[in-house]
Amino acid sequence: MAKKTSGRGQRDLRVKVKSARGRKLSSTRWLERQLNDPYVRRARDEGYRGRAAFKIMELDDKYGFLKQGARVVDLGCAPGGWCQIAVPRVNALGDQPGPQGSVLGIDLQEIEPIPGAELHQLDFMEDGADDKVKAWLGGAADVVMSDMASSSSGHKQTDHLRIVALCEAAAELAFDVLEPGGTFVAKVLAGGAESGLQMLLKQRFDKVVNVKPPASRSDSSEKFVVATGFRGTED
After folding, report:
1. What pTM did the predictor assign?
2. Which of 81, 145, 216, 230 is positioned for an S-S bond with 53, CB 3.0–4.6 A?
3. What does the pLDDT profile of the chain (235 residues) look like in tens digits?
4. Beta partners for 224?
């Protein structure tokens, strides 16, 4: 018979990180949180490149936009967790019965190859970047998703405005390339400045929801906007 453990014994299994010389307290706390994060452990055990993979997995499980045969654009894709989830779900490798989809990943950083995904290093905010993405896509998309984030400035409101700007740029690409009925998914930070974006999305999509998937840390201000049923380009 398995020996029962006390609640205290279970709590003692939590990894504690000692402060090291030259390491900031905030860094020590971050490291400790990473080591004790169940999603970080799951990502490592299941071969995903980061815990963010579970965020898009949970969003797709709920809203079902990564359909077999779908053409997907993933903006801010490094290190590649979202692409890893999208490839099998849209049948980008063509190794399942049914229609074959495609996954195009874009990021400012270089990305290690992912079988079934076409990956490009590009600053999406530079002039003409959206034209390059459209050329690589070679047609319309069914899903545009963005996990883009700017480097933290340490100022909450500034960071919020920057990520809203990235989200707005991603939305503009979505308006340009999505098929009618398509889906736009993007990370934003709660803070109020995104209200204009929300209004714009509601004009262009049948349904717009804001959701915080279980894989998103409870102490994080991030949320995800999921806009479904794209109404098509305006005349």
Report:
1. 0.81
2. 81
3. 444 444 444 444 455 545 555 555 555 454 445 555 676 788 788 878 888 899 999 999 999 999 999 999 999 999 999 999 999 999 999 999 999 999 999 999 999 999 999 999 999 889 999 899 999 999 999 999 999 877 666 666 777 788 888 999 999 999 999 999 999 999 987 766 567 888 999 999 999 999 999 888 777 778 899 999 999 876 4
4. 187, 211
DSSP string covering 190-228 = SSSTTHHHHHHHHHHEEEEEEE--TTS-TT--EEEEEEE
At residue 142, the 3 state secondary structure works out as strand
Give me the residues paired with residue 118 across strands: 104
53 Cβ neighbours under 8 A, 6+ residues apart? 43, 81, 82, 84, 85
CB neighbour class for 112 (10 Å; exposed up to 12, middle 13-18, buried from 19): exposed
The span from the CA of 136 to the CA of 71, in Å, is 12
**Distance, CA of 138 to chain centre:** 23
First to last CA, the chain: 71
Token digits of residue 156: 């909450």
